Amino acid sequence: MNKLAVFDFDSTLMDGETIEFFADTIGIRQQVAEITREAMEGRLDFFESLTRRAALLKGVKQAKIDEIAHNLPFTDGASETIKSLKSMGYTVVCFSGGFRNATSYAKPLLGYDAEFANVLHSKDGILTGLVGGEMMFSDSKGKMLERLQCILNVSKENTIAVGDGANDLSMFAYAGTRVAFCAKEIVKKNADIIIDEKNLLNILDKLK
Prior knowledge:
Elements: E1 3-8, H1 18-26, H2 29-40, H3 46-55, H4 62-69, H5 78-87, E2 90-99, H6 100-110, E3 114-123, E4 126-133, H7 140-152, E5 159-163, H8 169-172, E6 177-181, H9 185-188, E7 193-195, H10 201-207
Parallel strand pairs: 1-2, 1-5, 2-3, 5-6, 6-7
Antiparallel strand pairs: 3-4
């Protein structure tokens, strides 16, 4: 019997939002916060929010972004929870509306099996402000989860999805166990398990 656990990255496996760490370091926090606020208020969808925030990074050195991405704080219990799930027979995958320079770096450190995220385009070592990847839209996570279930022959009942934000809701539709981790209210309303303490090990207790 195949089993699959899918985790969001920002504010789930990682303690914070990758784009906000970038913004703080290069001095564009206010602009990024305004775009995020518009998205939360429903005036921007995820694609618009992502592309507008990526555009603010134009001209930044790729090496600087990589340095920030490689020093992000992981959420307490992340690696231990992934290790435990894998020992229980789960394939563990990370879905992120953020960026692969963070999720790829974290993969061997946290131990998940694969990651799907977006890529900040660069030319001659400088960001162009463009972005592409597998997680560009509000429904990307759900569509990717459905594909993985087909490839791995995993049923909805044997799928766990863990996330905190509105763009995680699309994968909840394909998961038999839906975990809201320190999540927005709209996510909690669609979850089977709600974790409000910032420690991923609490998920294991709920699965017993």
